[in-house]
Amino acid sequence: MSSWERGPCTDILEVILDEATIAARIEELGREISASFAGKNPLLLGILKGSFVFMTDLARAIDIPVEVDFMAVSSYGKSTKSSGVVRITKDLDRSIAGRHVLVVEDIVDSGRTLSYLIENLETRNPASVTICTLLDKAEARIADVEAQFVGFPCPNKFVVGYGLDFAERYRNLAYIGELKPEVYQS
Ligand code: IMP
Ligand code: MG
Asked: What is the distance, to the nearest Å, from the Cα of residue 35 to the centroid of all Cα atoms in its chain?
């Protein structure tokens, strides 16, 4: 794998969404979510680790009272394809019974991770479960899940940055870019 220190990341083939574009869309999402959940005191449920950057910006774009919690799941390992086997590595801190839960995801790809998670959450008797994803790779969908709030449609390419990783790297890029295939094929 190539490496980079300081300066622009040379492992990126093309920037797909720049910082300003992401920020503007998150402002809109924040307004839509605030209107939709007014009076409901929703729980923003971030799925770690990929959603950690999106969550911090989205939460601040919402201007109604919310609570925040996180779950961590692992499904990929060091690969670019979801295995379909999802493991909860960190569970919620509190009960969600009777709560309006807004799941905050970085990207929905095959949909397997979310489909498993939603089934799991439904057993805990929440008032509602709604999905907000920054990126929607609709073309890659296998499981039957649909996000009600979508930041951007995403081409069927492997993207990194703004929380999204390959083998735990690139999460700290401020933009979202397509990873050079030679980086994950090598
Ligand atoms: P799914 O189960 O196939 O929908 O995969 C969902 C998870 O896979 C996401 O939460 C991401 O962590 C990861 N993922 C899917 N596509 C990408 C990508 O293009 N870049 C980085 N991570 C991805
Ligand atoms: Mg993830």
From this structure: 21
